[in-house]
Write a structure and sequence with these properties.
Elements (H helix, E strand, L loop, with lengths): L3 E5 L4 H13 L3 E6 L3 H4 L14 E4 L5 H9 L3 E4 L13 H21 L6 E7 L8 E3 L3 E3 L6 H5 L15 E2 L13 H20 L2 E7 L1 E3 L12 H10 L5 E2 L6 E2 L1 E3 H13 L6 E5 L5 E2 H12 L6 E2 L10 E2 L4 H7 L7 H14 L8 H10 L5
Parallel strand pairs: 1-2, 1-4, 2-3, 4-5, 5-9, 9-14, 10-13, 11-16, 12-17
Antiparallel strand pairs: 6-7, 6-8, 12-15
Helix pairs in contact: 1-8, 3-4, 4-6, 7-9
The structure holds nicotinamide-adenine-dinucleotide and zinc ion.
The site of nicotinamide-adenine-dinucleotide has 30 residues, from helix 1, strand 2, helix 2, helix 4 and strand 5.
Length: 377
């Protein structure tokens, strides 16, 4: 039987890939609701060219309850991906992030509770940023959840995380879903609020919900014009403009980079598996990668004459390590990330090189803005 599926924010990077997955794997009717945010898409009134032609596109915002309600009522499954996604930017465009991310979620739940509809299931895109620093272990104190590094420590260029109990050295571990949540930006907090609001209301009213905490997603179609997201896009845009990538701290901070196709695999599993209902899952690879390694890889592949700049500056609120423990989603849903980093970045760079428009590097502007707000030191 065909299903009616809505993707909010479906004209964006992850949502557009999900639309392709859904269209290619079934006869389901897919609708995309997207406001075509100028920061992501530039000035356009029509959906981007890459968006699958077999979907129904509706230009609109999840902030507009009436507009949103009309669309929700028509659908049975909702992937809620619409959001503002700049972590640093969220620390000064506070109202905008609350509006789009928290009010948008509030509208969705309000509609589900108060109107007649056929929605059976919602899947929410959350983020690794809800954790803050990842899980770690101290030789003396055992498992700990480090706090954000304090400014004095960072001023002294001591980038390592410390044990919150004895201030000793820590070994970073993979972070599982039971780890302490310690959001360190309005963006991260907005994602945490989305999770809690969704779980509370769906439990109360018997609506199926799954929360996916994506780690750092990369792949073709990631907005290059948006200087606030995606270290891949930022490094590539600079290299293609003949400038070296700028790496904060010493480059040894580690992250979990997951290809957008693997994210789609997880989204599809979340939709189909009854075992996913009421649950939160990490979606990553479980493989730590330092930012230094990422920068060097891109330099080598795009412009080997340049060298990354390790600027020994830091962004207030940045974490040192966070890498996913993906045992839960592997064991419960059978998730199995398939795209290796090497394969993934090859495809990414090919896409970047094929893109026809001139790459606008807005990193310097974005850094100046962060500096002006006191968020870059
Ligand atoms: N890319 C990542 O690394 C990552 C990591 C963790 C979580 N996420 C989450 O995944 C989701 C999708 O992210 P993405 O990387 O595809 O970002 P994106 O910016 O490419 O896509 C977001 C889309 O939402 C649209 N949008 C924004 N506000 C809207 C509103 N009020 N109403 C309707 N549409 C709106 C934008 O126009 C855009 O097309 C987001 O919820 C994000 O928080 C992404
Ligand atoms: Zn300790």
């Amino acid at each position: 039987m065909t299903k009616k599926i809505l993707i909010t924010g479906g004209a964006g990077f992850i949502g557009s890939h999900l639309a392709d997955f859904l269209i290619e794997s079934s006869n389901d009717e897919v609708t995309v609701l997207d406001c075509l945010d100028e920061q992501v898409h530039g000035k356009i009134n029509n959906p981007p060219d890459y968006l699958n032609k077999n979907i129904k596109f509706i230009l609109g915002s999840v902030n507009d309850q009436e507009e949103f309600e009309e669309v929700v009522k028509e659908n049975e499954i909702i992937f809620h991906l619409a959001a503002k996604v700049g972590v640093g930017q969220s620390m000064y465009q506070i109202r905008d992030y609350v509006d789009n991310n928290i009010l948008g979620m509030g509208n969705l739940l309000n509609i589900l509770v108060n109107s007649e509809h056929d929605v059976k299931k919602i899947v929410i895109a959350s983020s690794n940023t809800v954790y803050g620093e990842g899980k770690a272990s101290c030789a003396k104190c055992g498992i700990v959840f480090p706090k954000l590094r304090i400014l004095n420590q960072m001023k002294n260029k001591n980038w390592n995380i410390q044990c919150p109990k004895c201030e000793g050295r820590l070994k970073s571990l993979l972070t599982d879903e039971n780890a302490l949540c310690n959001p360190s930006s309005i963006y991260a907090l907005s994602k945490r609020v989305q999770e809690e609001m969704g779980l509370m209301i769906c439990k109360t009213y018997g609506i199926d919900i799954t929360i996916l905490r994506f780690f750092l997603v990369y792949g073709p179609r990631q907005a290059l014009s948006n200087p606030y997201t995606g270290v891949f896009a930022i490094f590539c845009t600079r290299l293609l403009n003949g400038k070296p990538p700028i790496v904060f701290e010493d480059g040894l901070q580690s992250r979990d980079f997951v290809n957008v196709k693997d994210i789609c695999q997880a989204l599809m599993l979340a939709m189909k598996s009854p075992e996913a209902n009421g649950e939160i899952f990490n979606v990553g690879t479980g493989i730590p990668l330092t930012i230094k390694k990422v920068a060097e890889n891109f330099v080598e592949k795009i412009n080997p004459k340049l060298k990354p700049i390790y600027n020994q500056q830091y962004r207030v609120g940045d974490i040192r390590h966070c890498v996913a423990d993906i045992s839960k989603i592997k064991n419960k849903l059978g998730y199995d990330p398939k795209i290796s980093f090497d394969k993934g970045i090859e495809e990414y760079i090919n896409w970047i090189k094929k893109k026809e428009y001139k790459f606008q590097d807005k990193t310097d502007e974005a850094l100046a803005e962060l500096k002006e707000k006191g968020l870059l030191k």
